[in-house]
Amino acid sequence: MNGLAGVLVAVLPLVAIAVLMVGLFWPATRAMPVAWLVAVAAGAVGWGMSPRWIAAATINGFITATQILWIVFGAILLLYTLKQTGAFDAISGGFAAVSDDRRVQVVLLVFLMGSFIEGAAGFGTPAAVVGPLLVGLGFPPLAAVVVALTGNLMAITFGAVGTPLIIGLEDTFASSEAIRSTVTSETPYTIASWVAEIGAWAATYHVIVGIAVPFIGVAMMTRFFGEERSVRPALEVLPLCLFSWASFAVPYWLTAMFLGPVFPGLVGAMVGLALTVGVLRLGYLHPDEEWDFGDRSAWPDHWVGDIEPGESSTRSGAIAADGGTAQAMPLWKAWAPYALLVVLLVVTRTIDPISTFLQANGVLVWSDILGTGLTNDLAVLYLPGAAFVFVSLLTIGFHRMSGDEVRGAWRETGEKIAPPVVALLFAVATVQVMLQSGAATGSDSMLIVLSQATADLAGGIYPFFAPLVGAFGAFLAGSNTVSDILFGTFQYGVATDIGTPRTIMLGAQAVGGAIGNLIAVHNVVAALAVVGLVGEEGRVIRLELIPLAYYATFAGLLSLLFSYVLFPGTF
Question: At what angle do helices 480-498 and 403-441 cross, to 10 degrees?
Answer without folding.
Answer: 30
